[in-house]
Amino acid sequence: MLELYHHGSSVCAAKVRFAMAEKGVVPDEMHYIDILKGEQFDPDYLKINPKAVVPALVHDDHIINESTVICEYVNDAFDGPPLMPEDPLARARVRLREKAVDEQLHPACGELTFVCCHRHILMRLGEEKLREFLGSTPDQSVTTTWKERKKELVRLGFEAPGIDRTFRLYDDYLSKMNEALERNKWLAGADFSLADVALTPYVNRLDMLSMSGMWTGGRFPFVEAWFGRIKAMESFAPAFLDWCPADLTNDLRTFGAQSWPDVKQIIGIK
Ligand SMILES: N[C@@H](CCC(=O)N[C@@H](CS)C(=O)NCC(=O)O)C(=O)O
Q1: This prediction's pTM
Q2: Which of 53, 72, 115, 133 to mutate to test the pocket of ligand 1 (most atoms within 8 A of CB)?
């Protein structure tokens, strides 16, 4: 029995759906946890993932958390096309990408998403429910400072301290990806791998926020070509688009477009 707990706009959950789809693994059950309505704080879900985050995989009563670990587990535990290269150096390159995502790009993506879009969605809860929502995050969550940081991001938006560094870090990652993709077709070498799986949700997040100007217009042409190849894959829409409800897709597009002038200014895009 294979069960995936996930959410439509979660980058980490999309990463796991992408790995599963490329591997040809179909969960027996998908459980939708609406992290914008606070369903991640449900005591039953906290027993599965005490950090109150998605995704979580349950395989024959074994709980596996952490999206990078889940992707590697899926690759190791099931038949299907290998998503890890054979060559030890290429494997090291995959793991360096995964580590960078987990340690830096993912926390930056959370900040970017809340400032540009999710804060506006959460405001709809009204002050009382919003306060309850913001108080429910455990001390150990997306990061050890996420509980307090999320409050700042929701309350202050682009005025949150240090937010400009977050956008520049994101931009710097696109630049690093561009350098790697100038040398190789895929991020860890000649073959598609978990490195590409790990980074795709973070480029797709910008795309869904109407912020493809971060790599188009000649800024990062190798990223543009790589993302074009990924979007043409059969697994792309089921993994990245189809689980995101239409109203959330629309909010990401609309609030993202409204935020784009501020983002452009921070990064210095003309
Ligand atoms: N390190 C975790 C991070 C998971 C994570 O940050 N999940 C986000 C969605 S992408 C979440 O559930 N956030 C809930 C919240 O902010 O309350 C992983 O890779 O699985």
Answers
A1: 0.97
A2: 53
Q: Is the CB of 10 under 6 A from ligand 1?
A: yes
Q: Output the six-digit token pair for 201.
A: 């949700």
Instruction: Supply the angle between the helices 127-136 and 146-156 in degrees, to the nearest 10.
Output: 150
Q: What DSSP designation does 239 have?
A: I
Q: How far is the CA of 58 from the centre of ligand 1 (A)?
A: 16
Q: Is residue 196 part of a domain?
A: yes
- pLDDT tens digits, one per residue of 88-130: 999 999 999 999 999 999 999 999 999 999 999 999 999 999 9
Indicate if ligand 1 lies below 6 Å from the C-beta of 98.
Answer: no
Inside any domain, residue 181: yes
Instruction: Return the residue whose CA atom lies nearest to atom 2 of ligand 1.
Output: 66
Q: Is 113 in the pocket of ligand 1 (CB under 6 A)?
A: no
Number of domains in the chain: 2
Q: Is the dihedral of CA 162, 220, 109, 88 positive or negative?
A: negative
Domain housing 102: 88-267
Amino acid at 66: E
Answer whether 98's CB lies under 8 Å from 228's CB.
no
Q: Which of 14, 49, 77 is the last residue of a domain?
A: 77
Both 38 and 92 in one domain: the answer is: no
- 258 phi/psi in degrees, rounded to 5: -65, -30
DSSP-assigned letters across all residues of 82-120: -SS-SSHHHHHHHHHHHHHIIIIIHHHHHHHHIIIIIHH
Q: Which atom of ligand 1 is nearest to the CA of 35?
A: 14
